[in-house]
Amino acid sequence: MPTLPSLGGLRGRGNGRGRLRPPVPVPLSAYIVDCAVYVDGKRLPGRWTHAEAIKEVRRRRDGFVWIGLHEPDEQQIQGIAEAYGLHELAVEDAVQAHQRPKLERYDDTLFMVLKTLRYAEHESPTTANEIVETGELMAFLGVDFIITVRHGGHSGLARLRRELDEDAEQLSNGPAAVLHAITDHVVDQYLEVSSAVEDDIEEMETRVFAPRTQVSAEQIYLMKREVLELRRAVMPLAAPVRRLAEGFTRLVPDEVRSYFRDVDDHLTTVSERVAAYDELLTTLVDATVAKISLQQNTDMRKITAWAAMITVPTMIAGIYGMNFDYMPEVHTKFGYPVVLVVILLACLLLYRIFRKNKWL
């Protein structure tokens, strides 16, 4: 059976003469969410390309450029990297994503990676397959520019940009103020997600310790996996934020450094919460396993008790089924009722003993 040509093959076909055309390049504007020039904390009117924006700032020798990108490929970001002097290793990390939170310095440029989080709404934590959704946010910080690269559908910065556009005093501190606002925004998301996860853990804890409720250990392990996602986003970010708060680079002025200390305090709060969640879930796993073991022991006692009571009539019936001539009460008129009464009394006696010992 012939196979259909791939989409890439169709893009490369000519006009029937057998010539191949190169794939149509996607313009950089498809990946740029916004590009703006800020002078004295105010956004200049008009639409700017990345090259025009940085030329305008350097011509004025004042202000900075903020470019927002969404999941660009290596070819599309290359023009910006050349115009703004971005290091090739940082560009590679920004394109490939799947990086852990970190802060690196390349000459006069900082490269920061943050994990974004979003709480996935669900009916119950005992039935949900996913509780925390993750994304990534990278930022290139220079003297007169900041470039943000987003990966994921929930890490948008449009609302944050609108809020900053109305706060000229904060933007007057330069691109480092934007980096602080982004970091603060991400950490605030951590606080919201951790609070929602805490509610789920409390609900699961209530169900685990409530009588006659069934919570599987697998579901608690799923919750531990989601908490691990939180941990991977929160814990590695502590060192980069602390370095920014301590002012290890001149790209972060003293006015902005104090704000990073506040972000560091919030991040510490989230870190303590996540550590407590992990310990609590470990306790819930142990409690669930103990509860399952106790239930199994109870079921085994019940099975043993019923088996013992069934053994009595089975044993007596087995004896009388041997067909010997000289069996007790075989030729007695009331032998059959007597045997039935003996079986019933023996079963009632065993039932009472097992009930007294709480086996039934």
UniProtKB/TrEMBL annotation:
Keywords: Cell membrane, Ion transport, Magnesium, Membrane, Transmembrane, Transmembrane helix, Transport. It comes from the Bacteria. One of its GO terms (cellular component) is plasma membrane. Gene3D superfamilies: CorA soluble domain-like, Magnesium transport protein CorA, transmembrane region. Residues 1-21 are annotated as: Disordered. Pfam families: CorA. The chain crosses the membrane at residues 303-322, 334-354. It is a multi-pass membrane protein. It is found in: Cell membrane; Membrane. GO terms for molecular function: cobalt ion binding; cobalt ion transmembrane transporter activity; magnesium ion binding; magnesium ion transmembrane transporter activity. InterPro entries: CorA_cytoplasmic_dom, CorA_TM1_TM2, Mg/Co-transport_prot_CorA, MgTranspt_CorA/ZnTranspt_ZntB. It catalyses: Mg(2+)(in) = Mg(2+)(out). The keyword Transmembrane applies. Mediates influx of magnesium ions. Alternates between open and closed states. Activated by low cytoplasmic Mg(2+) levels. Inactive when cytoplasmic Mg(2+) levels are high. Belongs to the CorA metal ion transporter (MIT) (TC 1.A.35) family. PANTHER family: CORA FAMILY METAL ION TRANSPORTER (EUROFUNG) (PTHR46494). This is Magnesium transport protein CorA.
